[in-house]
Specification:
binds adenosine-5'-triphosphate; mainly alpha; three-stranded parallel sheet; two-stranded parallel sheet; about 325 residues; binds magnesium ion
């Protein structure tokens, strides 16, 4: 069975972009593959995180993965830092990665640009991500559009390693959703919705209560036209329509028929109700899971136990390929 791997950072609060771009698809494809879904805490600390908050967020995010429908009986749900092989392989891959490749990454440029001093971790981030994927020889990596460049880089790193040290890694494929691959900020439809962007009008959190969701969506930035015109869709309106379509599974024709000529205020109400309806069962399950003492910790321990041998075997193979010391 082919393997699928993907990760999410325990930064901020997971939002509808994470859900539509990634989590929803993790759930959908989990039984078609051997699935590994990872809370990438080592990625989170590329920017400073409050330690207490980070520790709490890791378990909350694990609970959210279960709440959206990841089945821990089938899929391994793990925390990156619980499996030391991630950091170990990252070093070996760092040594075959030209700095120029990393400096070209769009996310690096955006995140580094916002910092006074840029931590080396921010630059190395995609190498650690390559290690996450290659450690399990994952064939499929379902991500949002913003991570496409990093998965491509992973292929480049794997190829370079294979050509230097012999065939070692499987080439991973990116899987992008057809709708919802890039959900934009409600306050600024030119920027992707992100956990780490501050401001209460930017993102709809998966845990926002109905009245907060309504308020955020009603305030979303649109253009100055009064109603939906499919010949001239502004970025903000396009974003709202994509959110609606991704949550309801409606076809393009259906969306056109329903929303053509509708005033923005009414469009926003419809979008808000669709989001609220879709999130209600997720929120209910999330609270049930959080109230079940010790459950999340057991799921994480079980996941780590199942997949650590795969990770260790890859590190061993890479060490041998590179001539590093492995006891005979
Ligand atoms: P951060 O701001 O901390 O980077 P983030 O919102 O970008 O947070 P990540 O944890 O980096 O979230 O990404 C988790 C997954 O969600 C990835 O697969 C990523 O591609 C996807 N994703 C993130 N933002 C969006 C978005 N706005 N639309 C669609 N998919 C997204
Ligand atoms: Mg991100």
């Amino acid at each position: 069975m082919k393997r699928v791997f993907s990760g999410i950072q325990p930064t901020g609060s997971p939002h509808i972009g994470n859900y539509l771009g990634a989590l929803k698809h993790w759930v959908r494809i989990q039984y078609d593959y051997e699935s590994i879904y990872c809370i990438v805490d080592l990625h989170a600390v590329t920017l400073y995180q409050d330690p207490k908050e980070l520790r709490a967020k890791i378990e909350e995010l694990a609970a959210m993965l279960l709440a959206v429908g990841i089945d821990p009986q089938h899929s391994a749900v793990v925390v990156q830092s619980a499996i030391p092989a991630h950091a170990e392989l990252a070093w070996m891959l760092t040594c075959v990665t030209p700095v120029g490749w990393l400096e070209r990454m769009t996310q690096y440029k955006a995140k580094a640009g916002a910092q006074e001093t840029v931590g080396d971790g921010l630059l190395q981030y995609p190498v650690l991500m390559a290690a996450d994927i290659l450690l399990y020889n994952a064939a499929i990596v379902p991500v949002g559009e913003d991570q496409r460049q990093h998965v491509e880089l992973t292929r480049d790193i794997a190829q370079r390693f294979n050509s230097l040290y012999g065939e070692t890694f499987v080439m991973p494929e990116t899987h992008l959703p057809s709708v919802g691959a890039r959900v934009m900020g409600l306050d600024d439809p030119e920027k992707k919705m992100s956990k780490s962007v501050p401001g209460s009008g930017h993102a709809v959190s998966l845990l926002d209560p109905p009245e907060v969701i309504r308020k955020k969506i009603l305030r979303a930035t649109t253009d100055s036209s009064p109603a939906v015109d499919f010949e001239q869709l502004g970025a903000g309106v396009q974003n709202l329509l994509a959110i609606y379509q991704a949550f309801t599974g409606s076809s393009d024709a259906d969306v056109r028929a329903q929303f053509s000529g509708l005033r923005y205020g009414d469009l926003k109400k419809r979008v808000a109700e669709a989001v609220i309806t879709a999130l209600e069962p997720v929120q209910k399950r999330f609270h049930e899971i959080m109230n079940e003492r010790g459950y999340v910790a057991r799921v994480l321990a079980d996941g780590a136990e199942r997949i650590t041998p795969i990770a260790d075997a890859t590190v061993e193979a890479v060490k041998k390929a590179m001539g590093l010391y492995t006891p005979a």
